[in-house]
Amino acid sequence: MARIIVVTSGKGGVGKTTTSAAIAMGLAKKGHKTAVIDFDVGLRNLDLIMGCERRVVYDFINVINGEASLNQALIKDKNCNLLYILAASQTRDKDALSQEGVGKVLDDLSKDFKYIICDSPAGIERGAHLAMYFADDAFVVTNPEVSSVRDSDRMLGILSSKSRRAEQNKEPIKEYLLLTRYSPERVKLGEMLSVDDVQEILSLHLLGVIPESKSVLNASNSGIPVILDEKSDAGQAYADIVARYLGENKPHRFIDDKKGFFGKLFGGK
Amino acid sequence: MSKDAQKTPYNPPALEFKSSTFSVPVLVIASNDLIIIEQQLQAKVLLAPEFFKNSPLVLDVQELNKQSVDVDIVAVIEVIRKLGLLPIGIRGGNAQQNEQAITLGIPLHSIHTSSTTIDAKKPKTPTPEPETKDLLQTGTTVITHPIRSGQRVYAAGDLVIIAQVSAGTEILAEGNIHVYGTLRGRALAGVQGNTEARIFCSDLQAELISIAGNYKISEDLNQNIRNTPVQIYLDKQTLVIKEI
Ligand SMILES: Nc1ncnc2c1ncn2[C@@H]1O[C@H](COP(=O)(O)OP(=O)(O)OP(=O)(O)O)[C@@H](O)[C@H]1O
Ligand SMILES: [Mg+2]
């Protein structure tokens, strides 16, 4: 049986797709057969970030409608043979997603895969609801600003009441906080909430902090998940997150102002 | 599960009657002035718009009938509906009012089994006022998980929350409210008019606090009681917030 992870946020543009791609690649690189599904029907871009947009023949909706088999639609990643991508349709409208259809696809995938990552669209409408409905774990992606934190809080409420686990009175979805686009300098200037501020408002288990980093844009431009850029801070942050999720003990990084020697010498504490 | 069971065609019953108890707000009116009723009801609705939106409600006219004040049921129901509430019952009405309610498709509810009709016999033993009795009978709701933005909780008795209450939430209780965590949302105690109700919380950062309709919004909260454990109660229509 696969473990289903939803990457969700409520607010748009906070880094869900970036995170989905990185986490999926990270899990696959650790030897777990992983599928990543784009739930953002009409606005697909997971395939761009994974660099497989030219190989999309069939998509998620085709499989739901029975127009293609899962095997036909799953795209094998070019960097890792344990990773598969199920792209969203660019042409269909959102109503094409049905709860029954999504459930069936996830059930079929569960037989063969260890992890299934669901990249949720923004908002709390149908697509976002279906992306989280079947989840076992939720990665709540949040930026250190008030509106993003508020939307995450709202999403957490929905996760705890409108999911399959909630409806069937099973053990609730495990919720994790991923604080992305974090900039210690801006926190210091008071332009952003600190990790502690966010933790205080959401009181959620912190899986990791991903710094604001140019490497993310570079990675998406070249169609390679940033986690493969092992020298980059964002890549390392995502690698830490995957390791922590799998039970390894990794101290948190990228939270403090990373001043060099001179900064430490002259910058006070 | 035996496979044989699948051989015989099985027609599941299409319906079933179940007995269930619901907690529904009761609107007790003490005036027959439609304009005043509308104004005051509107003010209440504005306090907790999410809660009242499409909320079912039972109209109680017993007080008016006790004072022999006549009221136009049809017009009152219209006012209630106009404000977005859904009347699902009337109680304490006289014969004519009951008939009007039935014509509008609104069922009759009894306060005590015997007191709906005017010529009902008085109960043999004196019983406490119905409202007080209700309050004493309803228990405590205990919630151990955080209340997240967009969620709303209603308790017919006391409400105890052993977790945080986020901004953008509404917690309502007919009795007291206790929050053992940070209270950032809107907390309304004594929502059926119990002026003895209190709010207790270990860290006050609420958007709004209200007891029996007397409320304060975040802006009106004194800075020095924010972020501290407090109790809130009513002293002659005035909300008092005290550190504990
Ligand atoms: N850690 C980061 N540092 C710098 N830029 C980032 C970071 N994470 C994400 N971004 C940028 O933010 C933008 C939005 O990212 P992404 O598409 O992953 O967000 P999303 O939550 O999936 O958006 P949507 O809600 O539209 O689906 C992209 O341009 C991406 O490059
Ligand atoms: Mg996205």
**Main β-sheet, spatial strand arrangement of chain A:** 3-4-2-5-1-6-7-8
Largest interface: A-B, 12 and 13 residues
| CATH class placement of the largest domain in chain B | Mainly Beta
N→C terminal distance of chain A: 49 Å
Q: Low-confidence runs of chain A (pLDDT<50, min 5 residues)? A: none
Using the alpha-carbon principal axes, give the shape of chain B: globular
Question: So what's the overall shape of chain A?
Answer: globular
| Total of DSSP H or I helical runs spanning 4+ residues of chain A | 13
Q: What percentage of amino acids of chain B are in beta strands?
A: 25-35%
Small molecules held by this entry: adenosine-5'-triphosphate, magnesium ion
| SSE pattern of chain A | EHEHHHEEHEHEHHEHHEHHH
Q: Which blocks of ≥5 consecutive residues of chain B have pLDDT under 50?
A: 1-8, 112-137
Order of helices and strands of chain B: EHHEHHEHEHEEEEEEEEEEE
Give structural attributes.
heterodimer; A: 269 residues; alpha/beta; eight-stranded mixed sheet; 40% helix; B: 244 residues; Alpha-Beta Plaits; Pectate Lyase C-like; 2 domains; six-stranded mixed sheet; five-stranded mixed sheet; disordered N terminus; binds adenosine-5'-triphosphate; binds magnesium ion
